[in-house]
Amino acid sequence: MNAQDSHDLVLRVIAQIAPDVDVGSLDEDRDMRRELDLDSLDFQTLVERIAEETGVQIPETDYPQVRSLRGMAEYVAAAGTPSA
User: Fold this and answer.
1) In sequence order, what E strands does 1-84 have?
2) What pLDDT digit, counting tens, does each position of 7-66 carry?
3) How confident is the model at residue 81, as a pLDDT?
4) Domain span at residue 40?
5) Which of 3, 22, 71, 74 has the lowest tally of Cβ within 10 angstroms?
6) What does the pLDDT look like over 25-35, one tens digit per residue?
7) Domain membership flag for residue 12
8) What are phi and psi of 31, to 5 degrees?
9) Which of 23-27's residues contact partners 24+ apart within 8 Å by CB, and which partners?
């Protein structure tokens, strides 16, 4: 999965979890939990849906890396790319 595909996927999943949010106005570098007013359960749902869609498991220890839209998209793109 390339960076644009993962970015689009994260936006789509966010729109499902927080349908009242204008995903086009999200700051890609801000903490999604704060910007979207997501509680822990909502964030866990986001992570689980990303895993369902991509097969990329995000352990809780990596949550600091995926707290922003950009971080989540880059994590998913990198995890979905086989290493050489």
Assistant:
1) none
2) 999 999 999 999 998 888 899 999 999 998 899 999 999 999 999 999 999 999 999 999
3) 58
4) 3-79
5) 22
6) 899 999 999 99
7) yes
8) -65, 120
9) 26/69, 27/69
Q: How far apart are the first and last CA of the chain?
A: 15
Does 56 fall in a domain? yes
3-state secondary structure of 31: strand
**Tokens matching residue 73:** 């998209």
Q: Report how far residue 60's alpha carbon sits from residue 71's, in angstroms, rounded to the nearest whole number.
A: 14
From the list 50, 4, 36, 83, the residue with the least C-alpha distance to 62 is 50
Which residue is associated with the tokens 């986001």? 46
Tokens describing residue 6: 């993962």
Q: Which residue type, as a one-letter code, is found at position 18?
A: A
- CA separation for the pair 54, 47 (Å, rounded): 11
Where does the chain have alpha helices with state H? 3-17, 32-35, 40-54, 69-79
